[in-house]
UniProtKB/TrEMBL annotation:
Belongs to the prefoldin subunit beta family. GO terms for molecular function: protein-folding chaperone binding; unfolded protein binding. Gene3D superfamilies: 1.10.287.370. One of its GO terms (cellular component) is cytoplasm. This is Prefoldin subunit 6. SUPFAM superfamilies: Prefoldin. The keyword Coiled coil applies. Residues 65-106 form a coiled coil. Keywords: Chaperone, Coiled coil. GO terms for biological process: chaperone-mediated protein complex assembly; protein folding.
Length: 125
């Protein structure tokens, strides 16, 4: 039963990590969608700069828009992957929880059976 509980705890930790990754991806998606929205407001003659370290570097507007669109698509793909992972971990966690409950029930039945076979009164809740 200890092994099942340990595995359950590992599954819960993996689930938490996946949920945190999903939240971070949501944040990145919102940020990039906001950038894309701002790009939509630009005129063709507006300058676009990219922050590289401490320096602003001039960037082609079309290239910048394309990069943001590609980043949005990549993030959406990652969100789908993480959601699938979360679903899988949820299913595994539920199965492990059922397994643990079954092991606990079996252990309680064995303890009650051995107590009653020794002539001790069985305690019921």
């Amino acid at each position: 039963m200890e092994a099942a509980v340990t595995e359950y705890q590992k599954l819960q930790a993996s689930f938490q990590t996946a949920v945190e990754a999903r939240q971070q991806l949501d944040s990145q998606l919102r940020e990039n969608e906001q950038v894309a929205k701002e790009f939509g407001k630009l005129k063709d003659d507006n300058q676009v700069y990219k922050l590289i370290g401490p320096v602003l570097v001039k960037q082609d507007q079309v290239e910048a828009k394309t990069n943001v669109e590609k980043r949005i698509e990549f993030i959406k793909g990652e969100i789908e992957r993480v959601e699938t992972q979360i679903k899988d971990l949820t299913e595994k966690t539920e199965k492990k929880k059922v397994e643990i409950v079954a092991l606990q029930t079996k252990a309680q039945q064995q303890a009650a059976g051995s107590a009653s076979s020794q002539g001790a009164p069985a305690i019921s809740a």
